[in-house]
Amino acid sequence: MAKILITGGAGFIGSNIARELVEDGHEVIIFDPFIQYVSPFETDLHVPLTKRFEGIVHKVIIERGDARYVRDVHRILEKYKPEYVIHLAAMPISTISNVFIGEAIDCTMLSTSHLLEAIKDIGGVKRFIYTSSSMVYGDFKYTPVDEEHPKNPKDLYGGAKLAGEILTQAYGRRFGIEYVIIRPSAVYGPTDMNKRVSQIFVENALKGKELVLEGPDTRLDFTNVKDTAHGFVLAMFSENAKNEVFNITSGDAKSLRELVAIIREIIPDLKVIEKPFNSAMPERGTLDISKAKRLLGFEPKYNLKEGIKEYIEFLKQHHKQ
Ligand SMILES: NC(=O)c1ccc[n+]([C@@H]2O[C@H](COP(=O)([O-])OP(=O)(O)OC[C@H]3O[C@@H](n4cnc5c(N)ncnc54)[C@H](O)[C@@H]3O)[C@@H](O)[C@H]2O)c1
């Protein structure tokens, strides 16, 4: 049994990692200030935060705390002395990272430096798992994109994530802090509340609203959150993962049009509007997950069709009355 601290652990991905770890018998400490990025008045669906921890809320330790504040970080590490730190805390949405730039820099870069500095000073952490993003690559020059693809982030979100990777590696080299860097992409599934494209499409489809496809042929490596969470768990414990970088995705990008076709099989009456691709966003596609398969034994279990079906079922139960 290991003791694991998850920063940003009350979030969408963090809560799924926490569930898998608790079910495997590990001790989990969640460190999170419970930030809400989308106004509760703007969401069509009522998905309480407690849903994320249904059945496990009494099996994890949940501590309010903010990694922007160095004292909070020291306090939590000294109090619990975790063996592993999974660092998910960040401004998690690319679009608003370019608007709330101060918050994005502080939550993504400053938080990472506070964590690394505290781990260096306090010691005892066997491995630091840093959450990056496929947005560090910028426009994909080829697909599938492997971990060595050039890094040309096109916005603040990708830039801040890449800065965090570099800091993690520098602390690793200089102070011997063992790390793993994980690059997820387009994660979807129950309890996401950040209005990413899959959530917007499914919510709108259920409400009879229009689905606006900005660049219908845009391809994203949609990944079910349970597969993402399992990838983190494998990377945390695997000997082979030491100081490595991994793409953790489904490895099978689908276009927005394909996503809509899947939704239409379940909700036939869809109103769809097609618009040109927003060139401020990077052109993406499939990520190469062969390294994660080879070194971690990572095998995504969900295809998009199964995942979206399950997601729609979940959302149907959580419409606001
Ligand atoms: N969801 C995706 O598609 C995706 C893709 C690539 C990378 N990521 C990264 O994965 C991580 C988790 O994303 P998510 O989708 O679960 O988002 P989320 O918003 O559901 O979770 C993020 C959590 O981090 C917390 N947090 C933010 N700033 C913090 C701080 N300063 N100190 C402590 N906690 C803080 C928030 O309160 C929130 O609970 C983020 O780093 C995000 O950038 C997500």
Q: Can you walk me through this structure?
A:
By secondary structure, this protein is an alpha/beta fold. The protein has a single domain (3-187, 223-250, 285-302), classed as Rossmann fold (3-Layer(aba) Sandwich). Helices cover 40% and strands 16% of the residues. It contains eleven helices and 13 strands. The chain has helices at residues 12-23, 49-52, 70-80, 94-97, 101-122, 156-175, 197-207, 225-237, 256-266, 290-296, 304-316, and strands at residues 3-7, 27-32, 61-64, 84-87, 127-131, 179-183, 187-188, 210-214, 219-220, 223-224, 244-247, 254-255, 271-275. A seven-stranded parallel sheet has the order 3-2-1-4-5-6-11, with helices on both faces. A two-stranded parallel ribbon has the order 7-10. It has a two-stranded parallel ribbon with strand order 8-13. α5 (101-122) runs parallel beside α6 (156-175). The model has no long low-confidence stretch (mean pLDDT 95). Nicotinamide-adenine-dinucleotide (NAD) binds at residues 7-8, 10-14, 31-35, 37, 66-68, 88-90, 92, 107, 111, 131, 133, 184-187, 194, 196.
